[in-house]
Sequence to fold (606 residues):
Amino acid sequence: MSDLIRLLPDHIANQIAAGEVIQRPASVVKEMMENAIDAGADKIHVIIKDAGRTLIRIVDNGNGMSPNDAVLCFDRHATSKVRTADDLFALTTKGFRGEALASVAAIAHVSLQTRREEDETGRSIVVEGTKIKSNEACVCPIGTTFDVKNLFFNVPARRNFLKSDNVEFNHIREEFERIVLAHPTLGFTLSHNDVETYHLTPGILRKRIVDILGKGANDRLVPVEEKTDIVNLTGYVLKPEFSRKTRGEQYLFVNDRYFRDNYLGHAVNKAFEGLVAPKNFPGYFLYLTIDPKKIDVNVHPTKTEIKFEEDKHIYMIILSAIKQTLGKYNVMPSLDFEQETSFELPYSMKNQPVVEPEIKVNPMYNPFHSNSGKGSSSGFTKAVSAQGFGKTAASTQDWENFYSIEDEVKDKQGLLIEAEDEAYAAKESLIKDKFLITTCRSGLLLIDIQRAFERMVYDELFNRFISNPIESQSLLFPVERNVSKQEHSAWEEQQQMLHRLGFQWEMKDDTLQISAVPSVLEQETIPACVDLILEEIAFKTIDKGDIAHLIVRSVAAAAGRKKHQLSGAAADQFIELLFACPEHALTPSGKKIMQTLTLDEISNRF
Fold:
């Protein structure tokens, strides 16, 4: 029997390595940008065509490479950062494994132009599937330019798994934002299909965050700073009222490297406990500076997972620092123990004399005195007199009268319902806060009014939206909202859908000015509607076929938040309209609209 184990050919081994490092076009952008930063560049240009399928170009003004280094950089595990195993635990650079360029070259057509300051000419190299096709001198500026074309040309299965251009470019922008937020002192640009998305100039961290989130973010930021022997913590958190239902504005960095860590993220969420709405997430941009020997970044091929030697101490430091910041800047509610605890009298009463309160008792009051005039001449019944108000012993008739309930009828389950209040309970008492309560065969039916209205609006809008545009109403004064670059792009990409739904707007810089909205929206619900739409289209990965459903659902959810005034007749009509909906038990997002409280469940409570 022949041997079964054999070594993989280099080109297959390189493609397997590429599958770990290069998952989509965004992975190429990340690796190339990190290489440019390691090369000492202070200006980096990222140019994208067709969401990276056709072209990814990274241009930097860094140190460049020698002719020999330009060839060697495409070999696996070729690196200038690591000499010994100990170097892995004292890393100060982004890349160190020497896998990025080899992985990219294994699955794409790559061309490189590079020149050092001391060289008169540069070097041009073309690589296709790990094979060098050309290597010659060229004229080029100082620095390095990488062109990555036809990504996954020799791995069609991986190419087929790529999403739409919109989704893939959102991933590219996400990686770009993570890197530029880690390096506010460097200049960056990002262009997609000849349209410039970002043009970021060097500056301070706060300016860089505002450039990413939009001008309105400046007033939302609260600075955080804490220096200890274990870790130095700096950065910003967003005020609690600007929390979101998605984690899009949560960034953790260690030694200028973005990473994800649920444990440390929990420390931030716990610091905001009680300050943000349920199921909302606070925004933060936190930067940790730690001795490289106390962390291990060599845990995952993409280097986004990091092991900390003292993670429990870091957790407590983050929790304490954020709580202190929220208190320092009066973000967290606090108790003032110095405040005068005596009552504050109105000015009109300050000069009035103090009058001792007086309790008045009517000794002739008789709770058992009927309209027929029964009772003792003194006004007391025999039972009341027997309890100290008289000398006559209580009779059985007195106590029976005391506990009697007039006009009671007994239903088949044994529950007592007052006949005179039955109509009132079924009609006028339907509304209690946010719930509508009515009787049904099995007991009581509780309906969430907002969710029911959301379902009705959704069904109505979606049915009309398919065949005709939705009627819109013009606003007397435009509603303005500051948007980030990502939100700006997402809103404009869905402009045809939004116009069909009845929205009209102008986009001025990073301000969205809405001049008309669907007629189902009230003035006070418009900001919430815009927030819900942007959360869906800008911060979530969604399929193209679901976009219409999500936008209509956001409009319906916002419309349901208005205050509802339902009288008896209106409540009956409201219930009829709800049950006319094909799916009347659940909202478009899958939440319960109604709940039945059976007679048995009611009985068990007594």
About this structure: Confidence is low (pLDDT under 50) at residues 339-344, 371-392, 402-430. Residues 205-328 form a domain with the Ribosomal Protein S5; domain 2 fold (CATH 3.30.230.10). The first strand starts at residue 43 and ends at 49.
